[in-house]
Amino acid sequence: MRRYGKHTDEDDIRSRPNRKGNRPRTNIRPKHEDAAEGMVLTVDRGRLTCLVDGRTVLAMKARELGRKAAVVGDRVAIVGDLSGQKDTLARIVRIEGRTSLLRRTADDDDPYERVVVANADQLAIVTALADPEPRPRLVDRCLVAAYDGGLDPLLVLTKSDLAPPDKLLELYGDLDIPYVVTSREELESGTAADRVREHLAGKITAFVGHSGVGKTTLVNALVPEDRRRLTGHVNAVTGRGRHTTTSALALPLAGADGWVVDTPGVRSFGLAHIDPSRVIHAFPDLESGTENCPRACSHDEPDCALDQWVAEGHADPARLYSLRRLLATRERTEGD
After folding, report:
1. Are strands 90-95 and 55-61 parallel, antiparallel or unpaired?
2. Using alpha carbons only, how large is the chain's radius of gyration in Å?
3. Secondary structure class of 147 (helix, strand, coil)
4. How many angstroms separate the Cα of 228 from the Cα of each of 68, 213, 216, 251?
């Protein structure tokens, strides 16, 4: 057998040909420093509609991103055909850092979390006062997800002509959450949208709510030029609404600088991904009192230092009750 040294110059050494005729693969990926900046508006079966320099561009995720997925609201770097013309496809090569992240799971036993929207400033929780009946536990769960994800909550109560809002507002009065109360007449005439718009200017707001509460009707009033969705109706037998939005969609707010993110109607809002220890950050008046809590304190146990903190007059007892009600919401079903 012929042996060759390290530096042989024999001309009869055979090398394996590159059958595809292309360059060999490399682990060094391009930096795409000249990529354009864009915002993801919606995601549909692996195709992402993005806003780039005022144009809507259809894009796909680059292979180098691996399993990392872009979601509505993400700021992304895009290369390729950015003309936005029909049958063109760009490529998302980088997902920029996120300032907030709204997540949920199907239920409290589901280990797979679903990202609803990224980089939103606030979460508008839309609930009807009747038809369908309000679900405070669902509202509680949305509040916990908002606090955990870094979003400011906003309560939007609809159908006040069917039931008064006082009882529901009393539950959340100590949380200092801004709210808007509307009637069906105001919702249909558009005056409700005008009052809600005051809370949305200059912000990215995600709308979430149970089906049939009027969320999509309100969004359509806030973004009148978008007519692609039809308003659903409440089922007279089950009391549940029919889904009218099948995927999250970011839309520019009409008449003001801001964005509205319409999300599919939810029947449940699982919190399996939530670390209860992070919820306390939404209660700055109570957070200082946790310094003497035992390790891994749930803030709802006999040795919790918050009881003494409140007893000494550092915070309102109603605020501690609200915190513990939210922390306990994972232990109860949403219909309780």
Report:
1. parallel
2. 26
3. helix
4. 29, 19, 11, 12
Tens-digit pLDDT profile for residues 189-236: 888 999 999 999 999 999 999 888 989 889 988 987 654 443 333 444
Pair 261, 73: CB distance under 8 Å: yes
The span from the CA of 295 to the CA of 146, in Å, is 25
| Residue with the two structure tokens 């769960």 | 141
Residue with tokens 């079903």: 333
Which residues, listed in sequence order, are joined to residue 153 by a DSSP beta bridge?
123
In three-state secondary structure terms, 319 is: helix
Identify which of 78, 12, 13 has the alpha carbon closest to the alpha carbon of residue 39.
78
- Distance in angstroms (rounded) separating the CA atoms of residues 159 and 130: 7
User: Which string of b and e fits 287-299 if b means at least 16 CB within 10 Å?
Assistant: eebbeebeeebeb
Query: Do 254 and 223 form a contact (C-beta atoms < 8 A)?
Result: yes
Along the chain (336 residues), what's the average pLDDT of each consecutive run of 10 residues?
A: 53 59 64 89 92 95 86 96 94 95 80 88 96 89 90 96 93 90 89 92 94 87 62 40 61 88 81 79 87 88 91 90 82 51
Element (H, E) at 142: helix 136-149
Taking the C-alpha atoms of residue 82 and residue 59, their distance in angstroms, rounded to an integer, is 9
What ranges make up the beta strands (E) of the chain?
A: 36-44, 47-52, 55-61, 75-80, 90-95, 101-105, 113-118, 122-128, 152-158, 179-181, 204-209, 249-252, 259-262
Q: Tell me which H or E stretch contains 143.
A: helix 136-149
